[in-house]
Amino acid sequence: xxxxxxxxxxxxxxxxxxxxxxxxxxxxxxxxxxxxxxxxxxxxxxxxxxxxxxxxxxxxxxxxxxxxxxxxxxxxxxxxxxxxxxxxxxxxxxxxxxxxxxxxxxxxxxxxxxxxxxxxxxxxxxxxxxxxxxxxxxxxxxxxxxxxxxxxxxxxxxxxxxxxxxxxxxxxxxxxxxxxxxxxxxxxxxxxxxxxxxxxxxxxxxxxxxxxxxxxxxxxxxxxxxxxxxxxxxxxxxxxxxxxxxxxxxxxxxxxxxxxxxxxxxxxxxxxxxxxxxxxxxxxxxx
Length: 287
Fold this sequence. Notes:
Family: Belongs to the tetrahydrofolate dehydrogenase/cyclohydrolase family.
Radius of gyration: 19 Å
Domain Tetrahydrofolate dehydrogenase/cyclohydrolase catalytic: 5-120
Number of helices: 10
Binding site for NADP(+): 165-167, 231
Protein name: Bifunctional protein FolD
Strand content: 15-25%
Strand order of the largest sheet: 1-11-8-7-5-6
Number of strands: 11
Shape: globular
Organism: Marinomonas arenicola
């Protein structure tokens, strides 16, 4: 059976370090790092995500300010709020919870956030910085996945990593981080021919497509490390349960190490969001 990569334990370690660094930051600068979270509409999943982020922020000593807007808010009003937060020196990080209602332009909002306050790491300039290996704010889920990989494997140099999915939020930044770690990286997606055979070559397999239990044991090389980024809902005996993009039951019998869902990558995402907020505050104070 595979070793379980426990995101709860690893994220708790990161949060402990962030909390200690926040205390040091406050002592040095006399201010508290501030995170503004913007929630548009009443999507239940988004409400849960925002609540968890706000709670964790308070636990590590980061001041969180939540802005809740109606689902029918105009693009102009949302843009104006982001501009206001950009100009506020007490706000060091800005997060606009996605997805947004369909009448709003997500790309426009993401690029309206000041790159220095873009703690999600989605702004075009932060994306470019990651792609070229320059300093910037890195998307939280790929960053958290890399932390888990390094704790599990130590040195990633020369390993073959296969990333399933090419999204701007996870797949592409994950590939960039793996390249920076000196992996040989292959990306597969819905148009890849014989995707299972490509995945079977992987020392590291990262699944990030949002397709319930897509990856089964036949896709995985014995001993591979599997990172499951997917969060899906399945019905079991009339009960809603979370599952990933990986069929945990079968793959855990083949893989060397694997992240569970829930309790794997999810906690790392929030921990890295707060680490990014502190990083943003430190950079702004030294600018």
